[in-house]
Structure formats: C-alpha cells, structure tokens
Amino acid sequence: MTEAPEQRRLTISDPQVMRALAHPARIAIMEFLSTREGGATATECAEIAGLSPSATSYHLRALAKFGLVEQAPSRGDARERVWRSFGPSWMVDAGQAAGPEARAAERALVEAHSARDMERVRDWLRRAGDEPAEWYEAALFSDTLLLLTAEELAELNAKVMALFVPYRQRNRVAHAPEGARSVAVQYRALPLA
After folding, report:
1. Do the Cβ atoms of 39 and 72 come closer than 8 Å?
2. Residues 98, 103, 109, 110: is their CA dihedral positive or negative?
3. pTM score of the predicted model
C-alpha cells in the first residue's frame, strides 16, 4: 500500500498504535486536527467527536502517548491546552511481512475507517435531495475496473494523490474560495484476486 510522499507524512505500522487509533472518536479527532493549522482544544475536538471535553481529553492523551498528536503552542491563555496532529497526513501499513497481530490491528483500523466512510455515504444519501443542484450534480459515485500492471497502478496512485494536494483542506482553509465545503473523497485501488 503506497501513497505519494508528503511532508511530515506519518506511517503507522505498530499494531499497538493501530489498535489505539481504531476508535471512531480518535479517527474523528485525528482528521479534525489534520485540517487545523494551529491545532484545537479538547472542547473544540469534542464537538467533532461527539464526546464531552473530558472524554475527548482522555482520547487526546492516548493519541499523544503514541506520538500521533502533540501539544501545540498556547493561543495566549496559559490554561488552555491546544493539541495538533504530528503531521497533516498519515497512512497505515503493517508491511507485507507483518505477522497475524499486526494484520489484525491493521484490519481493525481499516474497517473503522471504512465504517466511517460508509456512514458518510449514508448521510449524503439521506440529504442528497435537499442539497443545492450544483452540489447534487457534482457528487460522484464511481466503481471502475481497470486492467493494470503493478507499475501502472503505482503510477496511477501517484497521479491521483498529486491531484488531491492543492485541494487538501489544511492547505486551503485560510484562503478557501467562497462557497467551498469539506468534501470526503475515498480512493481505493486494490488488485482483485
């Protein structure tokens, strides 16, 4: 599993870290922090994770224990604890020679992400009819079978990932065009059996 390199991309291969991250609230917190240049407080993260600030603080400390988040400089109030992600993006890769424990942890984390992604699809389908026409027409579901060599697949993945870079939320949030919204894009390119 490869992706185009990015500055400060974190590769997670430790089974213990993968298991710690395979929690819906922690996934939401990591995603939120990866879009915030200056970080966020537990209270701000709690709104996204759907938890209380104290429960969110627990999850932030657990993520920090595994080096996934860190304390950010204070915004001026010394009592306020600000957290930021270690880097703007991360990927999971137990490695091709991983043992059963690492494979199980990787599978649990990928399944947690897939469940979150599927819930986003369900949410879209529930409200699609109420969306403005331009957003309804711009949304896309696609399932295409390609015939590729491993080298071609690697090249395709690199090109697709490069297309995402200028639109990443963290890169645009300060200068987002009027009318811009967060858009979830799930890209998978997996060889079939």
Report:
1. yes
2. positive
3. 0.80
Measured from the Cβ of residue 19, the count of other Cβ atoms closer than 10 Å reads 16
CA distances 13 to 98, 110, 136, Å, are 9, 12, 38
Residues in CB range of 147: below 8 A, 6 or more apart: none
Residues sharing a CB contact under 8 Å with residue 49, sequence separation 6 or more, in sequence order: 25, 28, 29, 32, 56, 59
Q: Which two tokens stand for residue 161?
A: 């990932």
Spell out a b/e string for 22-52, using b for 16 or more CB atoms within 10 Å of the CB, else e: bbebbbbbbbbbbbbeebbbbebbbebbebe
Residue 59: Cβ within 10 Å count = 22
What digits encode the pLDDT tens for the residues 117-135? 999 999 999 999 999 999 9
Q: What is d(CA 80, CA 41) in angstroms, rounded to the nearest whole number?
A: 7
